[in-house]
Amino acid sequence: MKGPTEWEMRNIIMPLLLSGAKMLDRHCPKCGSPLFEKDGRVFCPVCEHRAKQEKSEMRGVEERLKEKLSELANSLPDDIDELEKHLRAMEKIIELLERYRKLEGGE
Ligand SMILES: [Zn+2]
């Protein structure tokens, strides 16, 4: 992982400093951003932001997969070969959805 970008400095670290969070003299081992302490909790604002962003991106993918799945389920072909392809695609989507769910730590 890269260190904090200029955008992250300006939009995550600066506002945090202004909000009165304490900047520690330690750095995040993952991204190199300074660590902060607030309400007795030490955290890396950049990694937290990135994790949140990744999660919402994944949610977007999940939504699209679900849409596609119901689209496929609503248009099953009569031709047996086509149907098989269709079902295989649906199976793949379901597999992916399950994998995403595991990545999110199971809800
Ligand atoms: Zn970090």
Overview of this protein structure:
Helix 2 (45-73) packs antiparallel against helix 3 (80-103). The model has no long low-confidence stretch (mean pLDDT 92). This protein has a 3-stranded antiparallel beta sheet with strand order 1-2-3. Strand 1 (22-27) and strand 2 form a beta hairpin. Helix content is 62%, strand content 13%. It is built from 3 helices and 3 strands; from the N terminus they run αβββαα. The protein has helices at residues 6-18, 45-73, 80-103, and strands at 22-27, 34-38, 41-43. With 107 residues, the chain is of the alpha+beta class. The chain has 2 domains: 6-47, no CATH class; 56-103. The longest helix has 29 residues, at 45-73. Zinc ion (ZN) is lined by residues 28, 30-31, 33, 44, 46-47. Keywords: Coiled coil. Residues 51-103 form a coiled coil. It comes from Thermococcus pacificus. InterPro entries: Sig_transdc_His_kin_Hpt_dom, SSSCA1, Zn_ribbon_RPB9. Residues 61-107 form the HPt domain.
